[in-house]
Amino acid sequence: MPARGQVWLFDADTKKVIHSIALSKGDTYAFDSKEDRVYVNGKPADKTPLNADHTFRIYYVSKEDRDAKNDEHHDRDRDEKRVVPDTAKMVAEGKDEEFSYKADENGMAYLWDNTNNKLIESFHLESGDRVTISPKSNAMSVNGKTVSRDVELSRHVQYRLLWDTKKK
Description:
Strand content: over 45%
Order of helices and strands: EEEEEEHEEEEEEEE
Number of strands: 14
Low-confidence stretches: 70-81
CATH architecture of the largest domain: Sandwich
Strand order of the largest sheet: 7-14-9-10
Number of domains: 2
Distance between the termini: 30 Å
Shape: globular
Largest sheet: 4 strands, antiparallel
Radius of gyration: 16 Å
Structural class: mainly beta
């Protein structure tokens, strides 16, 4: 890595993040779909189910860039609750079609507008809760119940759902 930051391994066929990790400057990141293995600095890191027939993408953002975006957002908003913490990891994304995430423990889910680089909404979830986002229907729900928010979702925006268990 050219600088300290976050890496995501994204399965383009299932449209899901299947691995994410924070790395330091100089670290290397690789994967082998035949071995179902992620490698950091040439050493096996995690056994991750990877379908060898799928297309994968690696995304990276430096901590400096992420902090700058969070600072810009914080300056506009001045609301501490409207900033996505650095410890949040992307768990789902979508544009137009419905996507969701089921919490495996208590935490916060953040709906991020990746096209316009801004936080749309945050949700406190208990273990087992499912948040569902449907830009096509302009709807957000938790456990099937519509969340009434003064938010308009667009079918032309790429949304990301981030998950964090550190900030509750």
